[in-house]
Amino acid sequence: MSRVAPVSIGLTGGIASGKSTVSAMLAELGAIVIDADALARQAVAPGTEGLAEVVARFGGGVLHEDGTLNRPALGAIVFGDDDERAALDAIIHPRVRAASAEAREQAQADDIVVEDIPLLVETGQADRFELVLVVQAEEEARVRRMIEHRGMAEDDARARIRSQASDAERAAVADVILHNEGTVEELRAKTEELWRTIIEPLRHQ
Predict the structure, then answer these.
(1) What 8-state DSSP symbol labels residue 34?
(2) At what angle do helices 184-194 and 19-29 cross, to 10 degrees?
(3) Is the torsion defined by CA of 140, 145, 147, 150 positive or negative?
(4) Contacts of residue 89, Cβ cutoff 8 Å, sequence gap at least 6
(5) pLDDT in tens, 122-160
(6) Digit-coded pLDDT (tens) for 62-112
(7) Are 116 and 35 in contact (CB under 8 A)?
(8) Cβ atoms within 10 Å, residue 55
(9) Are 202 and 7 in contact (CB under 8 A)?
(10) Across the chain, what does the average pLDDT equal?
(11) Exposed, middle or buried by CB within 10 Å (0-12, 13-18, 19+), for 83?
């Protein structure tokens, strides 16, 4: 029986788990990847209604001199403040979902569409997908990556992890969990095996 819609996969994982690396690998294997973070950046690009709404809500202090969004300044306002974060989400999330829907409509029935959504669990989107793929790594490995690769202080790294869904919350909605405490080569091997044994066969269901 031929499919009438693309294979729909939701990909998520906490900060520094390796989710973005898996996303890139899946794209190399042939998936169409819809990157929610990239769409969120586009939603508040200079000249957009999204950026105008952000400035109206949070003030001109969230802009650089060149008119682009000052993400650290905005982050300082919303991080740890549920009301401010909700106000920002109300501006960005509808635009990201609309752009994601538009991208999905362009896919063919035999395509594999992977939606890379950092806040998939937090925004309650797991039920939208045929398969939910979660990338996980132990907290100490993630903290080390944030310190070494992002220049973050340890306390800041742990605070960012705490601000997101827990491993248990992600595992509760996962159909597949990729553990990523090892090397990039090991992660690539796991991703390729997943593609061959689980993702590709979905095309024929």
Answers:
(1) E
(2) 50
(3) negative
(4) none
(5) 889 999 999 999 999 999 999 999 999 989 999 989 988
(6) 999 999 999 989 988 988 788 999 999 999 999 999 999 999 999 999 899
(7) yes
(8) 17
(9) yes
(10) 93
(11) exposed
